[in-house]
Amino acid sequence: MNQHEIGRKLLELRKKKGLTQEELAIRCGVNVRSIQRIEAGTVSPRVSTLKLIGAELDYEIPFDENDDLKFWLLTLHLSNFISFPIFPLIIWLLKKDENPEIDRQGKDVINFQISMMIYLFASAILVFFIIGIVLLLFLALYITIITIINSTRVVMEKDYKYYFTIKFIK
What we know:
about 0% strand, 434 Repressor (Amino-terminal Domain), elongated, mainly alpha
């Protein structure tokens, strides 16, 4: 089912129950504009929002499980901008059993971040010898570029690669 079909179905069910968009929004804990956009088929809402609306309308909304997976994979890869492996580690620990891709890519992101922390620490020590400044700039640029590239590739369901990564978690 595409967004327009889901929107039409929700509109039909809402009217059948005699609810206004405002009433449905309040019951679901979302804003009215979200309900309007969902019914118009102009947005792709989160799975959790669709579940709330579906539960309120006594309707199980068919949704693509792949969208939820993409969200978590993208969140994992974008966490490289934080450059601290605690955030992807939490996601990985909570979600690794739900999907083998989250397990695999979570390990890759955590390994990448730990590797980059080691390289950044070594570069910071080398700042006293000027080469460290160049290395820090290179690493910052590399982390930014590789994160953007890999995040884009994950959304497009293509393979990604983190170079210069030490495999700590296998």
